[in-house]
UniProtKB/TrEMBL annotation:
This is GntR family transcriptional regulator. Keywords: DNA-binding, Transcription, Transcription regulation. Residues 7-74 form the HTH gntR-type domain. Pfam families: FCD, GntR. It comes from Paractinoplanes rishiriensis. PROSITE patterns: HTH_GNTR. The keyword DNA-binding applies. One of its GO terms (molecular function) is DNA-binding transcription factor activity. SMART domains: HTH_GNTR.
Length: 217
């Protein structure tokens, strides 16, 4: 997979901190200090503060009334709410786009699925998450609704935040199995079946998170 180079220092800091939060390198509750971050990343205070403000909007960093900043703590309730919102948005995009998919786009989905599985085998959960998200993005973009994709993008980072887990986590298997089933249905030309299976994947994922994610995380 290819990644665009951030156009500004602020964008670069946003990407770096977002990745560290999503992967769990910066655990929930971690105190965020401007000067320490600036020194570690080799930038000035300004892009660090701008990045923190952006990540606060995304829900990844909490800013207290006294202006201290911490990596957002994730509770089971918060995780389930994020999954519910993501499900509504992503399933709408899938429904609107699935009938517009071309053979090339389905093949691209298959490629993203391979990258997803290979990244997990390599222990790279960040790359796995990106490839898994791209699997859905291909269908959502086929709907032609760019505003919907923009809304999905806003939720993706926060949803991935609850997946700050090892490559061995059983939660990933929900998406591996779901994607494989969807591809088989698309190969058969059964777009309605593919949509139903996509929705079912979210139902199964939510149920597993509800069972496995504890409030003391």
């Amino acid at each position: 997979m290819s990644y665009a180079v951030p156009p500004t220092r602020t964008a670069a800091v946003v990407r770096q901190l977002r990745n560290e939060i999503v992967t769990g390198e910066l655990p929930p509750g971690t105190l965020i200090k401007d000067a320490e971050l600036a020194a570690r990343l080799g930038v000035s205070i300004t892009p660090v503060r701008e990045a923190i403000a952006q990540l606060s909007v995304e829900g990844l960093i909490d800013i207290a009334p006294n202006r201290t900043r911490h990596v957002t703590r994730v509770t089971q309730k918060n995780a389930l709410e994020l999954i519910d919102v993501m499900s509504v948005l992503a399933c709408a995009g899938f429904e609107w786009g699935v009938d517009n998919l071309t053979a090339n786009q389905v093949e691209l989905m298959r490629q993203r699925q391979r990258e997803f599985v290979e990244a997990l085998r390599a222990g790279n959960t960040l790359a796995a998450g990106a490839a898994g998200a791209d699997f859905s993005t291909i269908v959502i973009l086929a709907s032609g609704n760019r505003e919907l994709q923009s809304m999905v993008d806003l939720v993706v980072a926060r949803t991935m935040r609850i997946l700050a887990m090892t490559a061995e986590s059983d939660l990933w298997s929900t998406w591996i199995d779901g994607h494989e089933a969807i591809l088989k249905l698309l190969d058969l030309g059964d777009t309605r079946g593919a949509l139903a299976r996509y929705r079912q994947t979210y139902v199964e994922f939510r149920a597993r998170v509800e069972r496995e994610l504890l409030d003391d995380q």
